[in-house]
Specification:
- The complex is a heterodimer of chains A (553) and B (774).
- Helices cover 73% and strands 0% of the residues of chain A.
- Chain A is built from 31 helices and no strands.
- The model of chain A is unreliable at 77-96 (pLDDT under 50).
- Chain B contains 33 helices and 15 strands.
- Chain B is α/β, with parallel strands linked by helices and 774 residues long.
- In chain B, a hairpin with a 2-residue loop joins strand 10 (407-408) and strand 11.
- The chains are: A mainly alpha (553), B alpha/beta (774).
- Chains A and B meet through helix 15, helix 17, helix 19, helix 21 and helix 22 of A and helix 7, helix 9, helix 11, helix 12 and helix 23 of B.
């Protein structure tokens, strides 16, 4: 159209506009001629298009003006006053009906402005209109940010009313660039300024999630840790905040945030990062380890330490976890870890030394007296079992960790080694005394052992050994019933039970229904009688029950 | 016209409170599992599900191409629970009709099949078949769940427990879970032709280390074959004859791989190996029933929280599972939480929602589901709120089966002789070999596919016996009715059609009659009755130190004893100072040094403590008991009007808390103060908010009123039970069958404003609860 002597409608429109600019009266006529030809719209569109493709600003203006001029003739409804305002007014909101071509015009004008801004020598992106169309406005913003022109990017993004996400990102980049270069102000001033940049036209506080962390990272890179710190306190997205805090070296804060957010992966991430930094800072690896552990214990949240402890526990070498727990003065935990390893240790020797170590750890804290006492007792038990094995042979007791079981085993062995029977029973007494086993439990153990190994004579002896025995005869009777002893043997014990209801229960247990019925009668308990009737399975007894129930009623 | 009487269990099974959620989760879980199983052996990453590729899966969750998986998979599961969760509860076709049909499918009796089959009885019980579509040639269990079953020792003379092999016979809490299961040494290893081994584990150090050991061992044994040096005890001779080559080990983490797990894997030096691939399956909630969903039966939750004080991992898992529920059903508008862990889950859940939320793209969030979420309210309960209930013996059929025999992931393992007494099948010839063929134990699934079980499961011990009797009578009647009279053809036709249902019901009925007999027998023993009486006395704030001492002295099964001891401590504000250490000493001296650490952990959780003040007569439990009316001694177990029927007069605190939440806490502030943690009540809005913001707002109405509000806004005027809005209750740290029964009881009642769907981290009972704390 710009060819010399072109008679394209657009060229004619351009000429008409030129004439109009020069105040020539022929302009209107020329324009109307185009309108009459019905090619006005084409002419305008071509002018707009040409303007967009034009590099020369003056020429752009000239072409746009021509288009604008042409558009006057497009409006036939006489509403000219609105249109006369100029090209931007064409989309003025008061214009109810922006025509398609008007929108096209505005778009092109915007695009030209953006392109011109990009082509400015200080930016230097010489981009054609077609290129712009293919990478789209978002792409332009991304390039600008990549080129470290975030301020321009922000302005453009806002100007073009791009997607909120793009604008937020552009703002964040701008703020990042700002904090990175701003050296004159104090930390708080810089932070405030950065926040202002971030919040310009952000409608929803959620939109800046992650933004603060990004700016903070930039600030940190620029050596402005104070700024970074202040910014991170505002960050609400944990998954951005924690790496941010980690990057600026505030490991314990990062761990606290992660722990509060209950994100196990982040907690572990912080621990790993902190370990790396400790190793970097200290040349001596053991020194690094020490400072790592002590800081974790001192200033990390408890959960971080517990996770680290969980990790250390997977290691073959128990040293790490014990060191960690000890430096936190968690002796009950470190002691228990050692003690549990002792229980897993296949060799007796290892077990003993580990238990001694556990006992030593428990002793560090007076709250662990009970733990220590039990550990020491177990150590003694192992030695006692050794002694017994030497004296009576290897089968005298198993390697149980239970005092009661040891006594039980010794008593059972009395049935095997009849020759040593009395000695073994004496040994059981000795063990009970040594480990302060209450009499009640000792007696229970004795009757169970005697019953299990058919030492009924010893059992009877035990029952007769004192006038007042520490446990009820009930238990003797129950053992006798369970091991299907003679009725006479069972009865001997039941008759010594003082409580009537217990006697009744025992008779039932022994299926001695007649005696049970007698007992129930004595108790005058119809429920018990009915119970006997329902379970005894004997017509004779049932008859007796009925008789009683009858007479009682 | 004779037909099978319409006893309840012949009716079509009732739908759960929220069938859409359950079926979506089922098919999603299944899709994930199948795409892992059918993955190309050489590939290291899961393919992104391609809807256009018919070879993978279409979106209804059914494998389009029924061609078999081209390679053979050997599956290794960390525990038996995980195996049944994935094989029984996840892998089968989610269509309930086919599932229930398979449940009582008569097993072929001929032995010929057994010879060809590479699968064990147990695997078949889980629904696995030979030549299945997923190339599964066998399963292994990685680690033995060597927790001592108290029940087993009850049959043995108590004193004999410590004899024998010494320490090994006693449950050793310190070495728990570090023992390789014997199934890892399976003779099928050499012959099954598997080329891919898939390990399903949780991200715990024990599991990872065990898997890495297995993988390294396999490599070593391979080398040893070449050098014909075959004296590795781990090695099975069958290996040497086989040409099987394991081309890929897949380590699959459920529900996700954690950073800690990644680090340990790296330390174990298996990440660099070309034949090892690492995956994580995003399966967290697995529906076990229409109304009960479990977050992978993670048993270590309470131990992680209170023994190791590492909350984050499990809190995150639970929060993610709740996010998943809300992805399916829409954001739950109203959420309450009780206890510290409940609050943490709620906070994490809201943070996750905030993290996922895209403020620039709000259209997606605000679709129809948001406007009308399927779940109207949720209550997240920390197990700490109610430590008492798990320790109390339940008296419902299901509760007793679990307490006495143990139900693991909806499957009960009982001796075959109990279900089908040997005299029924003894054949004169070769009875010995027949006995060998019969597995000692059999596995019975117990869930809502068994319509009779649905009826009987939550009935009280006094009722289910007669109930089963009636059912038997009814079945018999229908049978005799038919054979008595002359029938015309249509009637015969009608009857024949019903035969499959009839046999199914008969089979189920016989099973349950046998089980009920066993339960009845056990509950009639003196031991059981004494235990129940002691529990009741303790619950009424009596002290039973003498009984406890006697029980220790007579070597009562340790965890049964600890249950009573902890119950005593919880209900009376701690154990009397003068009795505290002596009792602990009794326990350690009797059950062994290992129990020192069991006690230590019980103390950490707070199940066991020394009473601080001398005059602490009004413990917080007493307040709770009175205010929440926990003891209702006069409840009629056969026709209950209160949840306390589940243990003959004690109502679980946890469920009372749920009930009270409906009416609001006004007037019961004392209880709220005495419960650990605080009660939180939150309205979830859109756009999502931070927990700290949301908590400041008063939610106003009670959950009961809320139910009315939401139901008025959606369906007006309808008052049927099916129209009640849905409440989700999440038990963090496990729940018991007694609690499930109580909640079901409420859910069915008109007076309770919601129908309830239950989620939990694990179904527990007193013993498994205490054991899980190690």
């Amino acid at each position: 159209m710009l060819r010399i002597g072109s008679i394209e409608p657009s060229a004619l429109l351009l000429d008409a506009n030129d004439a109009f600019e020069n105040g020539s009266p022929s302009s209107d006529e020329a324009a109307r001629a185009i309108t009459r030809s019905g090619m006005l719209m084409d002419a305008i569109e071509i002018c707009i298009d040409a303007a967009a493709k034009e590099f020369d600003v003056a020429m752009q203006k000239r072409l746009l003006k021509a288009a604008s001029y042409g558009m006057h003739f497009d409006y036939k409804d006489g509403n000219t006053t609105n249109i006369l305002g100029g090209k931007t007014n064409a989309v003025n909101k008061s214009n109810v009906r922006p025509s398609e071509v008007a929108l096209l015009f505005v778009e092109a004008a915007k695009k030209i402005r953006v392109l011109n801004a990009l082509r400015h020598p200080s930016v230097g992106i010489a981009m054609t209109s077609a290129q712009y169309d293919s990478i789209e406005s978002t792409g332009v913003i991304a390039r600008l940010i990549a080129m470290k022109r975030p301020a321009l990017a922000t302005t453009l993004a806002t100007y073009l009313q791009l997607d909120e996400a793009v604008r937020a990102y552009a703002r964040a980049s701008r703020a990042a660039a700002f904090v990175a270069t701003d050296n004159s102000n104090s930390d708080s001033e810089t932070t405030d300024a950065a926040i202002r940049i971030l919040n310009t036209d952000a409608k929803n506080p959620l939109m800046n999630r992650g933004g603060y962390a990004m700016v903070a990272l930039a600030a940190n890179k620029a050596g402005r840790q104070g700024v970074a710190n202040l910014l991170l306190t505002l960050e609400s997205s944990i998954s951005d905040k924690v790496p941010g805090l980690t990057a600026i070296g505030l490991y314990s804060d990062a761990a606290t945030v992660a722990s509060h957010a209950k994100d196990d992966n982040l907690i572990f991430h912080v621990l790993a990062e902190f370990e790396k930094s400790c190793i970097l800072k200290n040349i001596d690896p053991s020194q690094a380890q020490v400072s790592y552990l002590s800081t974790v214990v001192r200033s990390f949240p408890p959960e971080a330490m517990n996770i680290l402890s969980k990790y250390f526990e997977t290691m073959h070498d128990v040293k790490h976890v014990v060191n960690l727990r000890n430096s936190a003065r968690h002796y009950s935990i470190s002691g228990t870890i050692i003690a549990k390893r002792a229980l897993d240790a296949p060799r007796e020797q290892d077990r003993l030394s580990l238990l001694q170590e556990a006992s030593r750890l428990y002793a560090q804290d007076k709250d662990n007296i009970f733990l220590k006492a039990c550990t020491d007792e177990y150590l003694e038990l192992i030695l006692e079992q050794e002694r017994l094995r030497r004296a009576f042979g290897p089968d005298v007791t198993t390697k149980t960790s239970s005092v009661t079981d040891t006594i039980f085993n010794v008593l059972c062995y009395a049935a095997v080694k009849l020759r040593d029977s009395n000695k073994l029973i004496a040994e059981s007494e000795k063990l009970a005394k040594k480990f302060k086993v209450p009499e009640k439990r000792l007696w229970h153990t004795k009757i169970r052992a005697f019953a299990a190994t058919d030492q009924w004579k010893n059992m009877r002896q035990l029952a007769e050994s004192r006038t007042k025995i520490p446990i009820s005869f009930k238990y003797f009777a129950l053992e006798a019933i369970k091991h299907k002893q003679d009725v006479s043997e069972v009865l001997w014990y039941i008759q010594r039970v003082t409580d009537g209801e217990e006697r009744y229960d025992l008779f039932c247990e022994a299926k001695l229904w007649k005696r049970a019925l007698d007992e129930a009668k004595r108790l005058e308990d119809t429920h018990r009688v009915m119970h006997i009737k329902s379970v005894c399975n004997s017509t004779e007894i049932q008859q007796m029950c009925d008789n009683f129930l009858h007479s009682y009623a | 016209m004779t037909s099978i009487p319409s006893t309840p269990h012949n009716q079509k099974r009732s739908e759960g409170p929220l069938p859409s959620l359950v079926s979506t989760l089922r098919s999603d879980n299944r899709d994930q599992l199948i795409s892992l199983l059918t993955m190309d052996p050489l590939s290291n990453t899961l393919p992104i599900q391609d809807m256009n590729n018919p070879n993978i899966i279409n979106n209804t969750g059914i494998a389009m191409n029924t061609d078999k998986c081209s390679h053979k998979n050997r599956l290794v599961f960390a525990s038996e629970s995980l195996r049944s969760l994935l094989l029984y509860h996840t892998l089968p076709d989610p269509d309930p009709a086919t599932r229930s049909a398979n449940l009582f499918k008569p097993k072929p009796k001929n032995t010929r099949k057994n010879q060809n089959s590479t699968l064990t009885h147990q695997e078949e019980a889980l629904g696995l078949t030979t030549n299945n579509a997923f190339g599964i040639v066998g399963t292994r269990i990685l680690l033995d769940d060597d927790s001592l079953q108290d029940n087993n020792t009850e049959n043995v003379a108590p004193g004999l427990m410590g004899t024998g092999n010494g320490m090994e016979t006693i449950y050793n809490p310190s070495t728990k879970k570090s023992v390789f299961s014997s199934s890892m040494d399976d003779p099928r290893d050499g012959t099954d032709g598997a080329s891919v081994v898939i390990y399903f584990i949780h991200p715990t150090p024990q599991h990872i280390q065990a898997v890495s050991k297995v993988i390294h061992q396999t490599a070593i044994s391979k080398q040893q074959h070449r050098s014909i040096n075959n004296n590795n005890p781990f090695e099975n001779p069958a290996h040497s004859h086989s040409g099987t080559r394991i081309s890929k080990h897949r380590i699959v983490f459920l529900p996700r791989i954690t950073s800690l797990a990644k680090r340990i894997i790296t330390d174990e030096k298996i990440t660099k190996r070309k034949d090892v691939a690492i995956h994580s399956l995003d399966i967290n909630l697995i529906p076990m029933e229409e109304d009960v969903l479990t977050c992978l039966e993670m048993e270590s939750t309470m131990a992680e929280f209170h023994v190791h004080n590492t909350y984050s991992e499990h809190i995150t898992n639970v929060a993610q599972s709740l996010r998943k529920v809300q992805d399916v059903c829409g954001t739950i508008p109203r959420v309450q939480s009780y206890g510290k862990a409940g609050e943490m889950v709620l906070e994490r859940m809201m943070a996750l929602r905030l993290e996922e939320y895209d403020p620039y793209n709000q259209e997606g969030e605000d679709d129809g589901q948001e406007a009308n979420p399927e779940i109207k309210a949720a209550i997240i309960l920390d197990r700490m709120v109610d430590l008492v209930t798990p320790l109390v013996t339940p008296l419902t059929y299901e509760g007793l089966l679990d307490d006495l025999v143990k139900i693991d992931t909806g499957i009960i393992k009982v001796e075959t002789d109990i279900i089908s007494p040997p005299d029924e099948e003894t054949q004169p010839s070769g009875s010995e070999s027949a006995a060998q063929k019969r597995p000692k134990y059999m596995h019975l699934p117990l869930n809502d596919l068994d319509t009779l079980y649905v009826e009987v499961r939550d009935q009280h011990v006094e009722k289910f016996g007669s109930f089963l009797q009636e059912q038997a009578k009814a079945l018999k009647e229908s049978h005799t009715n038919f054979s008595d009279k002359n029938k015309d053809l249509t009637e015969i036709h009608q009857f024949v059609k019903q035969i499959p249902i009839f046999t199914k019901n008969l089979k189920s009925l016989t099973n349950h009659i046998h089980l009920a007999e066993m339960v009845k027998h056990m509950t009639e023993q003196t031991d059981f009755r004494q235990r129940w009486q002691t529990e009741r006395s303790i619950l009424e704030s009596e002290t039973c130190y003498d009984i406890i001492e006697d029980l220790i002295a007579s070597q009562y099964p340790p965890f049964r004893l600890l249950r009573l001891l902890c119950l005593q401590s919880l209900t009376s504000g701690g154990i009397k100072a003068s009795k505290y250490e002596p009792l602990k000493r009794e326990v350690v001296q009797t059950y062994g040094y290992e129990y020192l650490f069991v006690l230590q952990n019980l103390e950490k959780v707070g199940l066991l403590k020394k009473r601080e003040s001398m005059w602490d007569s009004t413990s917080s439990f007493t307040t709770i008991r009175k205010q929440l009316a926990l003891i209702q001694a006069d409840v009629d177990p056969s026709d209950p009007d209160d949840i306390s029927y589940v243990s003959s007069g004690y109502a679980p605190i946890s469920v009372r808390v749920i009930q009270t939440a409906m009416k609001g806490w006004t007037g019961k502030e004392d209880v709220l103060r005495d419960l650990p943690g605080r009660g939180i009540d939150i309205v979830q809005r859109s756009p999502p908010e931070d927990f700290s913001v949301a908590i400041k707002r008063k939610s106003g109405s009670t959950l009961g009123n809320w139910a009315e509000q939401v139901s008025v806004s959606t369906t007006s005027g309808s008052t049927g039970i099916d129209d009640k809005p849905v409440l989700l209750v999440y038990f963090v740290g496990g729940l018991t069958y007694a609690e499930i029964a109580s909640i079901r009881f409420l859910s069915k009642r008109q007076s309770f404003p919601y129908k309830v769907i239950i989620c939990t981290t694990k179904i527990i009972n007193g013993s498994s609860f205490l054991q899980s704390l190690q």
